[in-house]
Amino acid sequence: MPSNTPSAPVPQGENEPRLDPQSLTSNRTDPSQNAPTNVDYTPHPESSIKVSEEREEILKKITSLYSGSASEEDMRVYAEKAVYDDPWSFCDTRWKVAGQWYGIPKIMAHSRTLATEIVLSTPTTLVWKQTQEYTPRVLHKGFKVDSLVTCTLDGEGRVVYHKDQWNEKDYSHEGVGKVMKTLNGDYLGLVTRPPGDL
User: Fold this and answer.
1) What is the DSSP letter of 33?
2) Given this model, what pLDDT does residue 81 score?
3) What is the pTM of this model?
């Protein structure tokens, strides 16, 4: 099993996407649909931009992970030193990222990607809006989360930084919240036990 070496501080700007969610997601056609923060993370699949098959495959693998696939093949979309950053966790290796994804089937009765909308694709970035429905095993009642998913890619098309934002605020990587996210990222894999060779 890989070591759960504590995460090192992440230099700001090193692979971390710092995009403007308002400019990427605001509904210019009907501003009344925007949240007070001027973001609209609800996907509109009919507005999704066209991307290459390779980019579609990245999206497919990651949404499969969100939906509980816990698949080694899907995990290979990440570089070995990939970073995963969401409201609950911060991981800085593929094995730690796998610890998060392998936890979904253990704590969720169901997890389904209901819709996506790709809003940006550049040589190094893929960004989409996503609606995910989670049904925890203990509650048996689903809840939906709209988020903005941003992936920074390396030259081989592997994800080196995956950021999942649930609101308009970017992550500061400071304070108690960052400590809790890092502890979750560092140690959850010891519970969920993804394959050691990831």
Assistant:
1) G
2) 95
3) 0.81
